[in-house]
């Protein structure tokens, strides 16, 4: 069980880091795409 | 049914108490599952708790526990009609993926483009997934079971089913996880407010936020789903089925030339798959697979997941406020949970209760929408990290 807990902690740490990292990349994508000017008729 | 009664009377007459006890427990299990099915139907109709899922699940639970119907598996192991449905729509992940196409077609990412910073609350509010996984491990669940239970915190039925299936969990556990995920999603208006009030002051809840309305270009909204799919796929290839389906649905919505397909995805596809998914999951809820301590704990874990999700989002907002001049209303962090659009509405309602002139709806919607992305990414992380550890991926 201890091994499971340690694995769980490792997965939690990496998992949260992974989620934040991926959403940081999406944040950059949104910022860059947000610079594309909207046409008046849209 | 008559045969079972005859067996019971025969066992009692011959004083074969072991057989009599076994048959008696079977009957008791059947009655308990009828009651559980009835409760789910009651919650769906009377309380309006996710009726599109809970009613079919409840009815399926009743169907499958009527003795000797063979609707799932026959006595010689042959597959019944609902067993066929399960094997070809849920066990092979088809239905979760189809639902995600429908969900993607329903999402409007415009608020996210208008307040991009809300993306980070979509990440923070997934804290509950990992916290719940840890609690499940402490309860003695195996790593894949705990990982799948944690994904209840994604507040996202298809992701929960997808991950639980990928880990090849027992059908009874998959059913319990599905019921927990959908039940607690409908309880968001009850679960979130007390947690938010516990972690924030009245002054914090009154914080007003500026919102800058601006047009988002159509090109940006078309490129977004494509780029998200590529990025997610390169980082975690195992996530492409879910993320890709979600983004495909969004692309057919935003492209502007597939309105019929978009409407079909949002309505016909969503309704048809939901209907069949619910009843098929329900038919896996046999007494023998559902009535055990693990199921009860899973139901409790669902509550734990949503509480930690809410806490994660709120506390992250408070942490960010330490570094920002323009403060964020910490309640908006709680909207990063994937229960869309319910959570955003709950947050706006709470903000209005504190200050009738406070409008945080757009920021809450942006956080809520980013929660949809965050939950899929978090589910994928569990799939990849746990899967690699157990040799699945």
Helix and strand layout, with pairings?
The complex is a heterodimer of chains A (42) and B (393).
Chain A: H1 2-34
Chain B: H1 2-13, H2 17-45, H3 51-64, H4 81-90, H5 94-106, H6 110-114, H7 119-124, H8 127-138, H9 143-150, H10 157-166, H11 171-186, H12 188-199, H13 202-205, H14 218-235, H15 240-254, H16 259-282, H17 287-290, H18 293-321, H19 331-334, H20 342-354, H21 361-389
Helix pairs in contact in B: 1-2, 2-3, 3-16, 4-16, 5-10, 5-15, 5-16, 8-9, 8-18, 9-10, 9-21, 10-11, 10-21, 11-18, 12-18, 12-20, 14-15, 15-16, 20-21
Number of strands of chain B: 0
From the N-terminal CA to the C-terminal CA of chain B, the straight-line distance is 44 Å
Helix content of chain B: over 70%
**Shape field of chain B:** globular
Largest interface: A-B, 30 and 47 residues
User: How far apart, in Å, are the first and last alpha carbons of chain A?
Assistant: 58 Å
Uncertain segments of chain B: none
- Ranges of chain A where pLDDT stays below 50 over 5 or more residues in a row are none
What is the subunit organization of this protein? heterodimer
Counting helices, strands and paired strands, the structural category of chain B is mainly alpha
Kindly state the number of beta strands of chain A. Answer: 0
The averaged pLDDT of chain B comes out at 90
Strand composition percent of chain B = under 5%
């Amino acid at each position: 069980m201890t091994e499971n807990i340690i694995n769980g902690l490792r997965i939690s740490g990496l998992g949260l880091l992974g989620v934040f990292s991926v959403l940081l990349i999406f944040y950059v994508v949104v910022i860059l795409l947000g610079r594309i000017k909207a046409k008046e008729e849209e | 049914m008559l045969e079972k009664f005859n067996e019971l009377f025969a066992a009692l007459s011959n004083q074969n108490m072991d057989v009599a006890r076994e048959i008696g427990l079977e009957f008791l299990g059947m009655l308990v599952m009828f009651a559980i099915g009835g409760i789910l139907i009651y919650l769906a109709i009377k309380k309006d708790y996710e009726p599109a899922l809970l009613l079919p699940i409840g009815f399926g639970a009743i169907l499958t526990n009527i003795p000797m119907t063979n609707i799932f598996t026959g006595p010689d192991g042959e597959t019944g009609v609902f067993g066929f449905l399960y094997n070809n729509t849920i066990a092979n992940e088809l239905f979760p993926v189809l639902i995600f196409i429908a969900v993607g077609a329903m999402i409007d990412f415009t608020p996210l483009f208008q307040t991009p910073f809300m993306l980070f609350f979509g990440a923070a509010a997934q804290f509950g997934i990992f916290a719940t996984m840890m609690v499940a491990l402490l309860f003695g669940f195996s790593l894949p079971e705990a990982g799948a239970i944690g994904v209840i915190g994604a507040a996202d039925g298809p992701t929960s089913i997808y991950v639980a299936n990928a880990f090849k969990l027992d059908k009874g556990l998959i059913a319990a996880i599905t019921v927990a995920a959908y039940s607690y999603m409908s309880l968001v208006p009850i679960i979130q407010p007390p947690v938010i009030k516990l972690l924030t002051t009245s002054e914090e809840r009154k914080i007003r936020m500026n919102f800058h309305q601006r047009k988002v270009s159509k090109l940006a909204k078309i490129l977004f789903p494509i780029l998200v799919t590529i990025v997610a796929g390169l980082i975690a290839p195992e996530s492409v089925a879910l993320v890709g389906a979600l983004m495909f649905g969004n692309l057919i919505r935003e492209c502007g030339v597939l309105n019929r397909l978009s409407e079909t995805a949002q309505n016909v596809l969503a309704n048809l798959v939901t209907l069949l998914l619910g009843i098929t999951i329900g038919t896996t809820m046999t007494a023998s697979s559902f009535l055990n301590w693990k199921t009860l704990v899973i139901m409790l874990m669902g509550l734990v997941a949503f509480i930690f999700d809410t806490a994660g989002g709120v506390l992250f907002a408070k942490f960010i406020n330490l570094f920002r001049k323009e403060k964020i209303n910490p309640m908006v962090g709680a909207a990063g949970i994937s229960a869309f659009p319910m959570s955003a509405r709950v947050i706006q309602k709470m903000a209005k209760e504190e200050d009738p002139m406070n409008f945080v709806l757009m920021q809450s919607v942006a956080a809520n929408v980013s929660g949809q992305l965050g939950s899929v990414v978090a589910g994928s992380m569990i799939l990849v990290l746990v899967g690699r550890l157990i040799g699945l991926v």
